[in-house]
Every structure is written in C-alpha cells, then in structure tokens.
Design brief:
The protein is of the alpha/beta class and about 290 residues long. Helices cover about 15% and strands about 30% of the residues. The chain has six helices and 18 strands. It has a seven-stranded mixed beta sheet with strand order 1-10-11-12-13-14-17, covered by helices on one side. It has a seven-stranded mixed beta sheet with strand order 9-8-7-4-3-2-18, covered by helices on one side. It has a two-stranded antiparallel ribbon with strand order 5-6. The longest helix is centred in the last third of the chain and has 11 residues.
Length: about 290
C-alpha cells in the first residue's frame, strides 16, 4: 500500500486543544474550522452581493449575499481545503489576495490551475486518497471522499469535485474528531461506501442549495440533504451553501421542513452568515 502524502506545518503546536473547537460560517461553502491547533479555510468565496461569478461555458450567476468577513480579516491559515474549482468556491478575490505560499488541498483539476496562477504548495488527492497533515503534536488525516457534481453527461462538463473526511488525532494515532464535508455533490451510490469506511462521524457540513445549471440540479436539495444525513449518520449536521447565488433554488427553509418531517431536528445545527458553532469533544477514541 502506498504511503500517504504528507504536509508538515512549521508553526508550533505543543499543547493542542482537543476538548473543543469551532466552525465559523463566512457564507456559501466558506467556513473557518479551528480544532487541535489547526485553522482551516474551506472553499474561499469573498465576492459581494451583486457580483457575478463565472460557472464556465458562458454561464454566470449573481451573488445575493455578502461574506461575513473580508479575506483580509481572516486569521492566519494552516491550509485551504478546496472541494473543486468553480467560481463560487474559489473566486477571483481568493486568487488575487491569498498568500501564494498557502497550502491548498484539492482535486488535480483544481491544483493544475492553481499552480499556473502562482500557488506553490498545492496537494492533489484522488478519491479515497489520504494526506497526513502534521502540526506539532496534532495530526490530521484528510481523505478525499467521492463526489458527483452533475448527473449523466452534465457531470462530464462540470469540474471534478471531492468531499473530504477529516480525522483529527494526536501523536499516538487516536482519533479525537471525525468531520465530513460533502463538497458540491448529489446523492449517488458511492456515498454509501463512506460509512462503511468511516463510521462514527461527529460533524458533517453539507453543501445544499439545490443548485441548477440549465435547469438540471447539481447540488443537493432539501430531500437529498436529508438522505445524505441518513447515509453519513453524523452526530451533528450543519447545512451550508444554501442561499448565496441565484442558481440556488432550494432554500434553507425547505431543508428545515424536510428535517422536521424526518424527525431529525436534534441532529442539525443551523448557522447564519457570521455565526460560530462551538463544539466540545469529550475524549479520544481508537482510530479506524
């Protein structure tokens, strides 16, 4: 079996905090995750309301919302986790203003472009491939999860997308926190392999919105979101990516209603732009 990729972060982390962490919601699929001494930015999108984003093949969409913070106000980042290369996930603001030495973990399709525009520390993952990220006395094993952005032929013209499983642990290898991020995916058969390989997910971030391109849905709507909750079976789910662009056609209210009808209200935490979800992690468990 091939050894995993690795990324060693130079910042000190001699006493990582495993007992608690947080998720700060910037907007779209952009969050700042803080746990075990790591600070991670996902899918950086800092365009403002009224700005146009290019989705490829001449398609554009207008942003409806503002980000909760500007990119200049972010804390120091350990790395960026990018699900795929689309303008509402990595925009022209991020391309221009992110430090080009910031590590970015994504698909090969995305990293090939990022390297061309000057980013020097990119790491590409294939589905089920893992990169080990070390920071002092904390370790993060980040594994690319299967994702399907569009059905049938449309999937072939949309950029490849990956979900992510983040297993945070200590030097001894014990897993303290398991977090799943869906990426822009629809429900598909390969998702059902995830809980077989990665059971006991603590926290899941689901990209919703019911995004439609040429009338065809390319991200999960409310019903698919509830199905994803049942498949991944995480202790807590946070919906993101639900109201920011005109192409998003399934509002958060639809998801709340579907969650209520499914009797899953106690397993969902809702965030508005600028809100922070603070969580506690009672103790380590054996890695899987």
């Amino acid at each position: 079996m091939r050894e995993p990729n690795s990324l060693h972060l130079p910042r000190r982390n001699d006493d990582p905090e495993f007992g608690q962490g947080s998720v700060f919601f910037v907007g779209t699929a952009t969050v700042v995750i803080r746990y075990a001494g790591f600070t991670i930015l996902t899918d950086p999108n800092f365009l403002h309301a009224g700005d146009h984003v290019h989705l490829g093949y001449g398609l554009t969409s207008v942003r409806r919302t503002n980000p909760a913070v500007e990119i200049e106000d972010l804390p120091p980042l350990d790395f960026v986790l990018l699900s795929h290369l689309h303008g509402d996930h990595f925009d022209r603001v991020a391309e221009r203003k992110l430090n080009k030495a910031t590590p970015i973990i994504s698909t090969r399709h995305a990293t090939s472009y990022l390297e061309k525009v000057g980013f020097t520390r990119t790491h590409a993952l294939k589905t089920w491939e893992t990169i080990e990220v070390r920071k002092g006395k904390a370790t993060l094993n980040l594994t690319a999860m299967p994702g399907t952005h569009g059905p049938g032929p449309l999937g072939a013209v949309l950029p490849p997308v990956m979900g992510s499983m983040l297993d945070f642990g200590d030097e001894e290898g014990g897993t303290r926190l398991r977090m799943y991020i869906s990426g822009d995916t629809l429900i598909h058969e390969r998702l059902r392999e995830i809980p077989r390989r990665f059971p006991d997910v603590d926290l899941a971030l689901l990209h919703l919105g019911g995004t439609r391109v040429l009338g065809i849905m390319v991200t999960m709507d409310a019903e698919q979101g509830v199905e994803a909750m049942r498949i991944i079976d995480s202790r807590t789910t946070i919906p993101i990516h639900y109201n920011d662009y005109e192409v998003f056609e399934s509002p958060l209210e639809d998801f709340k209603r579907a969650v209520g009808e499914a009797g899953l209200e106690d397993r969902v935490h809702y965030l508005g732009h600028g809100d922070t979800y603070e969580f506690e992690v009672p103790g380590a468990r054996d890695g899987t």
